[in-house]
Design a protein that fits this description.
single chain, 364 residues, alpha/beta, Rossmann fold, 2 domains, 7-stranded parallel β-sheet, 6-stranded parallel β-sheet, 13 helices, 13 strands, 41% helix, disordered C terminus
Length: 364
């Protein structure tokens, strides 16, 4: 991969372990395996340690729940070759910690399909971030087409998984309970599908500000008895391996990490024909896609697959083959590592960085 000897900091300003933190953790683990010294700043340390322990990778973890904490942690690192920021707060922290181009290359992954400036922080930080960045990645063409500045599209990879048994009559929804995920459509689709009468259940894994309203909507729709809100789930992989179907209703997911994790174990996915889903599930023959917010269309697809075990298995196999061909973790890490080398080469050609970064600075 050409990353032996590099020192890379992954930065996400949070104390959570949602999609962005999982992206950074997976990338950190893969880079470490390739011989890179990796420091991961931010995220929930306990959950990140557990995820890294499964792979046995050696990554230094530093907590950073706020921008100020992230800035402080980065300043203490001394020299690093690449600072890779995730979301605006992390970009601002990296820009403030490494304001000049003589110390490190600063890059980012754009996780949101929009220009910077939606928030007060974004509007304030955008000019400085744009001026400092040496490169941007996007997990999908959907994102790259909607952000400010040029992006290299590198689809996110996930670890390969064993083919699941999928022996439970469960439709899984794995997503944050926020407006952009449109979980209300999942409830309406479930009610219209009639699958509860066939012994199936809807399991919703995730938390968010819409949870109370969604629970109330389930009660009002008369589906509370067959609909389980699981909250934050740590054994998602096990549930994906045993569930019968996944329902993904987001109207504009940048990529859809949980969807690709479902693909990895052969779990059939019924997804909104929007955002990154069109580039993942949508590229598979016979993709079970419905128009965004069309709960009746989603219900028809769920019922059709639930009633045909052979069709479910064949569809799941095609999804798994697509994941292994296009969204493997190894391939993802290799593409990112090659991009790091390209960015560093450009910086050195412009005399931003020395050929070999000295290693006199290290973690205290």
């Amino acid at each position: 991969m050409g990353v032996l000897g590099l020192r890379v900091a992954q930065v996400v300003v949070s104390d959570a372990f949602a999609g962005t933190e999982r992206y950074a953790t997976n990338l950190a683990a893969g880079l470490s395996l390739a011989g890179t010294e990796v420091i991961l700043v931010g995220g929930d340390p306990a959950q990140i340690r557990a995820a890294l322990a499964e792979r046995g990778e050696d990554v230094t973890l530093l907590p950073a729940a706020t921008l100020a904490e992230a800035w402080s942690q980065l300043r203490r690192l001394g020299r690093v070759d690449v600072v890779h920021a995730h979301l605006t707060s992390a970009e601002a922290a990296a820009t403030l910690a490494f304001p000049g181009r003589s110390r490190s290359a600063v890059v980012c992954t754009r996780h949101i399909a929009a220009r910077r400036g939606a928030s007060l922080l974004g509007r304030a930080a955008a000019p400085f971030v744009r001026a400092r960045l040496d490169g941007q990645l996007a997990p999908s063409k959907y994102v790259a087409d909607r952000v400010d500045g040029a992006c290299l599209v590198v689809p996110t990879g996930v670890a390969d998984a064993e083919l699941g048994v999928h022996d439970e009559q469960v439709v899984l929804v794995v997503q944050r309970l926020e407006p952009e995920k449109d979980t209300e459509t999942a409830l309406r689709a479930w009610a219209a599908s009639g699958l509860a009468e066939k012994g199936w259940e809807l399991h919703i894994a995730g938390t968010g500000k819409q949870e109370p309203a969604l629970r109330d909507a389930a009660r009002r729709a008369g589906i509370a008895g067959s609909c389980r809100f699981l909250g934050q789930v740590h054994n998602v992989a096990e549930r994906l391996s045993r569930g019968g179907l996944m329902l993904a209703t987001a109207t504009g997911d940048s990529f859809g990490l949980s969807v690709v994790e479902a693909m990895a174990c052969g779990l059939p996915v019924v997804a909104a024909a929007a955002g990154g889903h069109l580039e993942t599930v949508g590229q598979v023959e016979g993709a079970a896609l419905f128009e965004a917010r069309d709960h009746l269309g989603a219900a028809v697809l769920m019922r059709r697959l639930a009633e045909d075990q052979a069709a479910r298995a064949a569809y799941g196999t095609r999804l798994r083959e697509r994941q292994r061909a296009e969204y493997s973790l190894g391939g993802f890490v290799e593409r990112v590592a090659s991009w790091y080398e390209h960015v560093l080469g450009q910086c050195r050609a412009r005399s931003y960085l020395p050929e070999t970064a000295p290693r006199e600075a290290s973690l205290p």
